[in-house]
Amino acid sequence: MSKHQQNGSHDHVSSSGAGPTCKVLDQPSMEVLVEDPSADDKSVNSSRIRRLEYLRRAIDCDCQILLLNMSVAPDGQAGSVSYRTFDCHRIFLATASEKMETDVFKNAHFNGVLEMDGVSPESVQIFLEYIYTFEVDSPLVALKIIWDIFNLSNAFNMPELMSAFFEKVKEQDWPLDDVIPAFDLAFRQCGMPELEHRCLDLIIPNAMKLINDRSLMNIQLYSLNYIIQLWMATDAVPRERLVLLLQEYQRANGLNFNNAVTFSHFTKIIQHFPGVLLDAEGSIIQ
What we know:
SKP1/BTB/POZ_sf, 286 residues, 7 strands, alpha+beta, 13 helices, BTB/POZ_dom, 3-stranded mixed sheet
C-alpha cells in the first residue's frame, strides 16, 4: 500500500532593507487550536468501509483464496470435497505479514490462487477482513472458531489477528459446548492465561454438564489430566464418573500397550485412582 506523505506548511517572513522584522501575533484561542476529535475517526472509518467494499464486492481483485473442505460420512470415512473461493487483492495480502508476502508476491510459481484447508469459511472471512482493516469486528466471531483463527494466525505469522479476535470474543457469552476445545488450545499453547482462566471459570461450576461433552475425547492427554485433577480437587464429579471418562477416552483414542509413549502418559492419569486395574491389553477394568 502506498505511503501517504504529510505536507508541512512553511511560514514566509517578508523583509525590508532595514533587515527582518518580527510581528508578535495574538495567541489564538483554544477554539481554534482544538480540532474536531471525531475527524480522524471519520477518516479511518471511511477508509475501513472502502476497503471492505473492495473485498466484499471483489472490485478489481487479482487473486483468490481457495478453501478446501472435506465432508465426513456417517460412518466416519472421508466424504466429498467441496471448495469455497474468496476473491481478494495480492497487495493487501502481501502487506499482512512477511510470510504472506513470500507466498503471494515472491513466489515465482504463485498462480493467483492461495489454497487453504482445515479451517472454517467464517474464520477465513474474519482473517481477510482483518488484513484489510486491522480490526476484528464481524458478527461471525464465535468461540467455536478460535482454533481456526489460531491456526491462521500461526500459519501466516499474524499474532495480532489472534489478539484482536480474543478481545472481541471475550465480550460474548460462551456456549458450554465450545469451552473444552478453547481450554485445550490455551493449555497446549501456554501464553494464553486469560483464555485459560476464562474457560476454567466455566469448567468448574459446570462439571456435571461438561463431563458428557464429546469434545473431551479430542483434547490432548495433558489437558484431560489437568481437568480431571481439577474436578477431583473440587469434588465436582464423582470418582466413578471420572474413571468412566477415562475408559471412554481410552476407547476413543485407541490407547493400549501398543502405544508405548502415549500410553505411558495415560497411565499417569490412571494413578490418580488407586484400585483401577488394567487387562492384558491395557484397557481399564472396573
